[in-house]
Write a structure and sequence with these properties.
The chain has a five-stranded mixed sheet with strand order 3-4-5-7-6, with helices on one face. Helix content is 60%, strand content 9%. By secondary structure, the protein is an alpha+beta fold.
Length: 426
């Protein structure tokens, strides 16, 4: 069963979707009101108006029908409808006494103009309409100029202007609130997309660090094992043991990362600490086992190093040594130093390698585009508010130098620039 509120809401939605039908209905109601009002005598004896003591003239009925018909087009041609209804009302005041209430149509038209234009236009048009109709009623009517009928014309036209302006202001306020809500929703979506992109970039960096380091060691040790398998089986077994350890470490770290990605809710706290300078000796040992001599010239492991800075320093050293092992060539040596200078920590990785043509600075990239080692290091460092430089050394070799603030910046990470002005080592 349809209830009264639901039926009213359905009718309101239908009228809102069909504005011409609504305006035709309104015009018909205004016409009925004007015709009913034309049967009322204002009452010159001072006892108030009386109903049924007079009948409207045919000319007045014609004017009322024309004014009501004009209201059907009040939305499409609001100014023209106001001019037509205002002219018909003034004609009624000039030629008929007592006049029929044609002014009702003008009140509706003036309200429409005020609700669909700006405030200065409402002021100008409202004052002009009020002035013309009030003067016509005062000058051509048989009643005194100060009669309540004449003052009613002034009051009703003024209230129509004020009501239309109030509706227009409220509509503009609601539209502004809706626009701000939509803008906030768009901003929220853009922020969510930005955070997703940053998280994807962070995961890609971590995966690159894990895979590039361990797979490079596996590749080197597998080559050593294949080379000495027949002549020195003991050394081949040792190399294969290093391959097993490196692959196990890679699998463990990949398992942790993939496990975090598969969690549907918030990730649980890791059960193992993130790598940092505290395990620098273990990292260096893996490279030494792979045949790369590494010397730790200075390693500041003092307290107070933030976790983010500690992890970034570890990853920079790991990636830099991986690049040395992959590109510096045979006989290369590396040197690592971590020094605290004031409120910053400086990480330097040097090597004296020559490398192959494809891996040396300044050489063109491989057809597949190469890796992203230096780019990932630079992103890590700049995300903390630091700076990283990488390039060839004078006299041969390569140098990676990172400056990390001890108080990590919490703002949005900076956009990384080119990996190196003179070339990249991946």
């Amino acid at each position: 069963m349809t209830t009264l509120p639901s039926g009213f809401a359905r009718a309101r939605r239908w009228l809102r979707d069909h504005p011409l039908a609504f305006d035709a209905t309104l015009a018909f109601c205004v016409l009925i009101a004007m015709i009913c009002g034309s049967f009322a005598d204002p009452g010159k004896g001072g006892h108030g108006p009386t109903f049924g003591t007079r009948t409207p003239e045919a000319f007045s009925v014609l004017l009322m029908v024309l004014a009501a018909s004009a209201l059907v087009l009040r939305r499409r041609h609001s100014m023209a409808v106001l001019a037509v209804t205002g002219g018909l009302t003034a004609t009624e005041y000039i030629f008929m006494d007592p006049p029929a209430p044609v002014v009702m149509s003008t009140v509706i038209a003036l309200y429409t103009v005020a609700s669909r234009t700006d405030r200065p236009t409402t002021w100008r048009v409202g004052l002009l309409t009020m002035g013309i109709l009030t003067m016509a009623a005062m000058v051509f009517g048989s009643t005194p100029w100060y009669s309540q009928e004449n003052l009613g014309v002034f009051a009703w036209t003024g209230m129509a202007s004020a009501a239309g302006d109030a509706v227009r202001s409220r509509r503009a306020f609601v539209d502004a609130i809706r626009e701000r809500a939509e803008r906030a929703e768009r901003t929220r979506e853009e922020e969510a997309r930005r955070r997703v992109a940053e998280e994807r970039l962070r995961i890609a960096r971590d995966l690159h660090d894990v895979v590039a380091h361990h797979i490079a060691l596996v590749n080197v040790q597998a080559g050593v094992a294949a080379h000495v398998m027949d002549k020195r089986p003991d050394q081949a077994k040792e190399a294969l043991a290093h391959v097993r350890d490196a692959s196990r470490s890679a699998l463990n770290e990949l398992r942790v990362t993939v496990g975090l990605l598969r969690q549907s809710g918030d990730p649980e706290a890791p059960t193992e600490p993130a790598p940092g300078l505290a395990v620098l000796d273990e990292l260096v040992a893996t490279f030494r086992n792979a045949g790369l001599p590494v010397e730790v010239a200075g390693a500041d492991r003092g307290p107070g190093l933030p976790a983010a800075v500690d992890l970034a320093a570890y990853r920079v050293i790991q990636e830099a040594l991986t690049n040395v092992r992959k590109h510096a060539g045979a006989g290369a040596r590396a040197e690592v130093s971590v020094v605290r200078v004031g409120t910053t920590a400086e990480i330097t990785v040097l090597d004296n390698g020559r490398g192959s043509a494809a891996g040396r600075p300044g050489a063109e990239s491989t057809p597949d585009g190469g890796g992203h080692g230096l780019l990932g290091m630079r992103e890590r460092v700049t995300a903390l508010g630091g700076a990283l430089t990488a390039g060839p050394r004078y006299g041969g070799g390569f140098r990676v130098h990172a400056i990390l603030p001890l108080e990590a910046r919490t703002g949005e990470p900076e956009k990384p620039g080119p990996a190196a002005a003179t070339g990249e080592r991946r």
